[in-house]
């Protein structure tokens, strides 16, 4: 049999990771955990040894103490098998891989966003731009005079602008 308990829990690190609304619940949990650990540590790790010779001298019925000793020593109380540590470790490793791939994704998008920011910072400030400067800087962001559009001037509401114009003599 084995008695296992964590003796070093980093409560400060746990407190940093939880929201302020949960601090009271963590304090209550820590208090309860400390009480359980104190009660467990108050007991000896191994059961006290039984002085069988004392009982042999004191008990009148012959063979009764030997029978009890034999049964007591053959008694095996199984310690519960640990079925969860492997699953927890596997899930922890899986989450670590997912976190690492998410970090790499974010690093890639950070590079793209930094390029956009650099191009914006390299531009002439809008207050100092002429209309020609703006048209060069943002080709899709200005009204093109070579293409006539209809209200509401969105791509979804326009007819095919590249289609050749055909004249109908109906009118």
Automatic annotation (TrEMBL):
<keyword id="KW-0472">Membrane</keyword>
<comment type="similarity">
    <text>Belongs to the ATPase d subunit family.</text>
</comment>
<comment type="function">
    <text>Mitochondrial membrane ATP synthase (F(1)F(0) ATP synthase or Complex V) produces ATP from ADP in the presence of a proton gradient across the membrane which is generated by electron transport complexes of the respiratory chain. F-type ATPases consist of two structural domains, F(1) - containing the extramembraneous catalytic core, and F(0) - containing the membrane proton channel, linked together by a central stalk and a peripheral stalk. During catalysis, ATP synthesis in the catalytic domain of F(1) is coupled via a rotary mechanism of the central stalk subunits to proton translocation.</text>
</comment>
<keyword id="KW-0138">CF(0)</keyword>
<keyword id="KW-0813">Transport</keyword>
<dbReference type="GO" id="GO:0005743">
    <property type="term" value="C:mitochondrial inner membrane"/>
</dbReference>
<dbReference type="GO" id="GO:0015078">
    <property type="term" value="F:proton transmembrane transporter activity"/>
</dbReference>
<dbReference type="InterPro" id="IPR008689">
    <property type="entry name" value="ATP_synth_F0_dsu_mt"/>
</dbReference>
<keyword id="KW-0375">Hydrogen ion transport</keyword>
<dbReference type="Pfam" id="PF05873">
    <property type="entry name" value="Mt_ATP-synt_D"/>
</dbReference>
<keyword id="KW-0496">Mitochondrion</keyword>
<dbReference type="InterPro" id="IPR036228">
    <property type="entry name" value="ATP_synth_F0_dsu_sf_mt"/>
</dbReference>
<dbReference type="GO" id="GO:0045259">
    <property type="term" value="C:proton-transporting ATP synthase complex"/>
</dbReference>
<protein>
    <recommendedName>
        <fullName>ATP synthase subunit d, mitochondrial</fullName>
    </recommendedName>
</protein>
<keyword id="KW-0999">Mitochondrion inner membrane</keyword>
<keyword id="KW-0406">Ion transport</keyword>
<dbReference type="GO" id="GO:0015986">
    <property type="term" value="P:proton motive force-driven ATP synthesis"/>
</dbReference>
């Amino acid at each position: 049999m084995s008695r296992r308990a964590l003796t070093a829990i980093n409560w400060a690190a746990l407190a940093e990771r939880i929201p302020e609304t949960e601090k009271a619940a963590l304090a209550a949990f820590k208090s309860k955990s400390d009480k359980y650990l104190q009660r467990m540590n108050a007991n000896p790790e191994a059961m006290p040894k039984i002085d069988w010779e004392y009982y042999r001298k004191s008990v009148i019925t012959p063979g009764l103490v030997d029978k009890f000793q034999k049964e007591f020593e053959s008694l095996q109380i199984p310690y519960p098998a640990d079925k969860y540590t492997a699953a927890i470790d596997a899930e922890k490793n899986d989450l670590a891989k997912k976190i690492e791939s998410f970090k790499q994704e974010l690093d890639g998008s950070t590079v793209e966003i930094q390029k956009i920011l650099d191009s914006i910072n390299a531009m002439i400030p809008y207050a100092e731009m002429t209309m020609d400067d703006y048209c060069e800087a943002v080709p899709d962001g200005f009204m093109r005079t070579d293409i006539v559009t209809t209200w509401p001037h969105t791509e979804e509401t326009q007819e095919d602008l590249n289609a050749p114009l055909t004249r109908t003599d109906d009118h």
